[in-house]
Amino acid sequence: MDYLPILLPWMLSMIFGVFVGATPGLTATMAVALIVPLSIQFDDPNAGLAMIIGVSFTAIFAGDIPATFLRIPGTPASAAATLDGHALAQKGLGEQALKLNLVCSALGGLIGVVILMLLAPQMAKFALKFSNFEYFWLAVFGLTMSATVSAGNTFKGMLAAGLGILISTVGIDNISGTARFTFKTAELSGGIQFIPVMIGLFGLSEVLRNARRDDGSTVSMTTPTQQPGSFLVAAKTMARRWRTVVQSAVTGTIIGALPGAGADVAAWAAYGLAKKTSKKPDTFGKGAEEGIIAPTSANNAAVAGAWIPALVFGIPGDAVTAIVLGAMLMYDLKPGPQIFVESPEKVKAIFSIALATQALLLVAGYCGIRAFRWVMRMPRQAVLTSVVVFSVVGAFSLNNRMFDVYVMVAAGLLGWFLDSQKVPIAPLILGLILGPLAEEKLRAGLIAEQGNLVPLFTRPICAILVTLLVLMLLGAIVNAVRNRRKKNQGDTTP
Prior knowledge:
There is one protein chain. By secondary structure, the chain is mainly α. It has one domain (4-458). It is built from 23 helices and 2 strands. A two-stranded antiparallel sheet has the order 1-2. A hairpin with a 6-residue loop joins strand 1 (171-172) and strand 2.
């Protein structure tokens, strides 16, 4: 693959990812949502994929920069980095901590991509045996998992997933040709476009949420004068703690492959595991090297892990890959096991781009560390205004029509309202993606079986997925009851 023609947009998108990730209040998902409209303007799909993959990895790392210096995570996946990273920054070692962070991010992402390359083709061979019913249960399984592991209670997660499914039904039904929820409007006949909804949910809603508490001030550095760091020292530290790197990267990849879990869950899980297996657990939270290595190795590996179900089954592992799936469909790339048979060169291109991104991450991340003070001196109002401009231009550029801008604004208001009610947005996104898949596969399977429901439950893989689904729901119910009892006991304690 020739990287030179796509190198410029690739690097520019990664710099954009650093800017968004390092700005508290903005998220990696929002960065990807804003970059997609630009990426699809390129005739070469590899350029668009390089931009999207580059943004996702760099934004996750860049969130650790304000987490280290200011104890304010730039993205949810960076929350665990506030502990030991900020403790070192308070000692004047923040730059050294971030260079260790950067090296581990690149290595963790590299391990995650290698695992992706090894597992995805083998899983695809297995997935070729799936019928429509297996895909239906897999989609339901992904929706349920995203709802149960999201922040907030399971009911709100289910509510968000149901809302996403409802939105996905707007338009002409592909099987019967019936108009659904179009209200005799021509624009709605083609359905609600995915990208404007994503931009609104993650771009405009963040602006609305931040604008309410914005006082016009800038965020200033409050940590002591930082001593210059060294990549050589960071590399030696990582080599000395290689077990923690590998353990955390594998943990992050596995958790990233679970629909709805995401890089934030992976970071905390790896941090907890590193603390349990450490010889000096008491040092965690006080500037422990392992406390920096574990979450940052895991969260970038989780980005790669989320591609496993996305490529193999067409099931997004997180909100970022949900957006990526929408972009791939625009490039006439249909994720699923057949992509490994019909478009192996495209799969190889994705793998090679993801590998090369880890090397470019070192360059973009270093620039981000150096430029952090300049970024944080920018007025928050200017940052929020630029997000609004990106959102409007991105939504309009898809089809050159104002209707998509109106959809984006409506989605932004919806996202802001759901956030105010503590309803997670990730299940809504997966509902938007997986809803049509579940409906299509169920109806196609029933048509093939002439309405017979028995195979839906008795096929071996279907039975396994149904069993896992029931166990997951029972576990969520038991956990909710247990938490309620603990809360009640706490309220009655004098």
